[in-house]
Amino acid sequence: MNYTILDASLAGLFELILVVTLLVITVVEWIVMLLMKFSTPGKSLLYSFLANLASLAAGYIFSRFSIDIGLAGENYSGLLIGYVVSVVIEALLIQAISKGIAPKKVWLTSVVMNTVTYIGLFIILNL
């Protein structure tokens, strides 16, 4: 078996996992937004997608500056830092693009939707 070809064919696996994870988290957080009656379904989906894209970009930028917000190991400080960064980035972005939604509602929604996804992430990491 030619392992070089096998390795090359798996080169895009990380990107695929990243995209699938982004989509799953977007849908989960969109459902939370719907349950909290945040906005219309279409706007909530847009807010969720853009917020998670911004959060992903922030995580990438932080990782370029060697700020460890990774998930590896038994030290969960990276997970906690990632949670706080996600809540702040997502709330700030949603507040900036949503009109007429009270800041308290935006921040509460950001905390709840990120709590749900990070608890799920914590459970998956501990399987």
Helices and strands, with pairings:
Layout: H1 3-9, H2 13-35, H3 41-64, H4 77-97, H5 103-125
Helix pairs in contact: 2-3, 2-5, 3-4, 4-5
Description:
The protein has 127 residues and is mainly alpha-helical. It contains five helices and no strands. Helix 2 (13-35) packs across helix 3 (41-64) and helix 2 (13-35) crosses helix 5 (103-125). The longest helix has 24 residues, at 41-64. The chain is globular and about 50 Å long. 22% of the residues are buried.
Order of helices and strands: HHHHH
Radius of gyration: 16 Å
The number of helical elements comes to 5
- N-to-C terminal Cα separation, in Å? 32 Å
The percent range for strand residues is under 5%
Q: Globular, elongated, flat, extended or rod-shaped: what is the shape?
A: globular
Class inferred from helices and paired strands? mainly alpha
Average pLDDT confidence is 85
The total count of strands amounts to 0
Short description:
The protein is mainly α. The protein is built from five helices and no strands.
Q: Keywords, please?
A:
mainly alpha; 77% helix
